[in-house]
Specification:
By secondary structure, the chain is an alpha+beta fold. It is about 25% helix and about 30% strand.
Length: about 240
């Protein structure tokens, strides 16, 4: 891998818990192999394009890296119900790509979050979308959901695949289909796909149980959580 820059943000209001200060550490890197990415995931790092990051917040440990062992995953009744409600959608896993349909879907989804949850207005342009979601990487994958009755794109998930890890990075969907619990069905679909391909872990990112936007991750069980923030030369411990 080639490290272009290492930086640590100045403290700012947390996006998940606004009453707390937050700081992220970043590594801007190129030529990261799937196995190197896997090692980073094991130590709590996440990826958007060439930006690899993880929390480095003083006096706070609310963000907890979470992963699901695919061999023992047991969907709950509500998760099975969500998967069944979305079973009629066509699902495709391919390399991430940009088009106006995807950008429009993102803004419709984010716009609903701005109204319901008070999120800041989205400023994702074509350039930003390409940089964050379609930046070339051998592990990068996209899972897309379409309504076959209209060929309408209803959900897009950005993911990474390594030999022993599947990372669920980001998911957005058509608000008109929110009643089908498409977000839940997406996670179940990714876990089942990983299991079918012999991948032992699905990384769900950070669970913040006091934040409604991230607390749902605790419902996918059994799961493991990373203890602390190990350095590159330290063995990670998942419990």
């Amino acid at each position: 891998m080639r490290i272009l820059e290492v930086l640590k943000e100045e403290p700012r209001p947390c996006s998940y818990l606004p009453e707390r200060p937050a700081t992220l550490e970043h590594r801007i890197m190129l030529d990261v192999t799937p196995l190197e990415l896997e090692s980073l995931l094991e130590r709590g790092w996440r990826r958007f394009g060439p930006d690899y990051f993880r929390p480095s917040c003083p006096n706070c440990s609310q963000c907890v890296p979470t992963r699901v062992p695919t061999a023992t995953f047991q969907p709950s009744k509500s998760q099975r119900r969500a998967k069944k409600k979305c079973a009629h959608f066509s699902v495709q896993i391919a390399a991430p790509r940009f088009d106006e349909e995807r950008l429009e879907l993102y803004h419709r989804w984010h716009g609903q979050r701005e109204v319901i949850r008070g999120w800041d207005e989205a400023e994702l342009s074509e350039r930003s979308y390409r940089l964050q979601f379609t930046f070339p990487h051998p592990a990068a994958r996209e899972i897309s959901f379409r309504d076959p009755t209209s060929n309408r794109l209803v959900g897009v998930g950005l993911c990474d695949e390594t030999p022993h890890a599947w990372s669920a990075i980001y998911f957005f969907y058509d608000p008109e289909y929110a009643h089908l619990s498409l977000g839940t069905a997406n996670v179940v679909t990714q876990i089942e796909n990983a299991r079918n391909h012999g991948i032992p872990y699905v990384y769900l990112g950070y669970c913040v149980e006091s934040c409604p936007s991230l607390a749902y991750k605790a419902t996918f069980r059994p799961q493991q959580r990373l203890v602390g923030w190990p350095n590159d030369d330290e063995e990670p411990r998942w419990e």
